[in-house]
Amino acid sequence: MSTDRIARSDRPIRLGLTGPIGCGKSTVAGWLGRRGAIVVDADAIAREVTAPGESGHAAVLARFGDAVRAADGTLDRPALARIVFTDPGALRDLESIVHPLVRPRILAAIEAAVDAHAPAVAIEAIKLVEGGLAELCDEVWLVSCADQRARLIGRGMDPDDADRRIAAQAAMWEQTELTFGASLVRVDTTGGLAEAEDRVDRLWAKVVGRANAS
């Protein structure tokens, strides 16, 4: 158990929300938010900590140099993405910069959810396990779909880029499933939105029931 884990008897249930790109993780997070959960977007926080003027911005530029420096001197995020999705070592270096900066802000957001007496807080993060955030959660939801590639291409992503991203993340989801086993809550978004939202409704009812019983 992490030493910075928040342990209060009146705290909300903490859900870890993760899943492959293109499968609807943010959509599920939005549904949870409309039902009363406080949603914490780790990817948005990662962008905040690497924004101009933040220490993460300078650290990323120092590590990757001109290859990720835009004409105005700021971080060229698309260029950075092209590098880290084809170079596992570069991705590890980026994560070693970003994850330690993201974690304190996640903890602060969880504490704010406690103070707001929310029934649940959902931590949305593609690197939930690798970023050390899964250990803060009571349960982990894995959002998946059978039509991931088609969805990405339908959004305008180049097919080769879609294939690279899917391949780069494949081992991550295998490790997530191995880590949590039967305790992993699977949310399949294949098919229509109404059907997927109905699944989330049923899972949310269980979360609210546990919150009311605590």
Description:
The protein is α/β, with parallel strands linked by helices. 53% of the residues lie in helices and 12% in strands. It has helices spanning 25-34, 42-49, 55-64, 77-84, 88-115, 148-154, 159-180, 193-213; strands at residues 13-18, 38-41, 120-124, 139-144, 185-188. The protein has a five-stranded parallel β-sheet with strand order 2-3-1-4-5, with helices on both faces. The longest helix is centred in the middle third of the chain and has 28 residues, at 88-115. The two termini are 21 Å apart. The relative contact order is 0.21. Mean pLDDT is 89; it is low at 1-9.
Helix content: 40-55%
What's the overall geometry? globular
Q: In percent, how much strand structure appears in the residues?
A: 5-15%
* Main sheet characteristics: 5 strands, parallel
Number of helices: 8
Structural class: alpha/beta
First and last CA, distance: 21 Å
Integer average pLDDT: 89
Could you give the count of β-strands?
A: 5
Order of helices and strands: EHEHHHHEEHHEH
**Side-by-side strand order of the widest sheet:** 2-3-1-4-5
Contiguous runs where pLDDT drops below 50 for at least 5 residues: 1-9
Radius of gyration: 18 Å
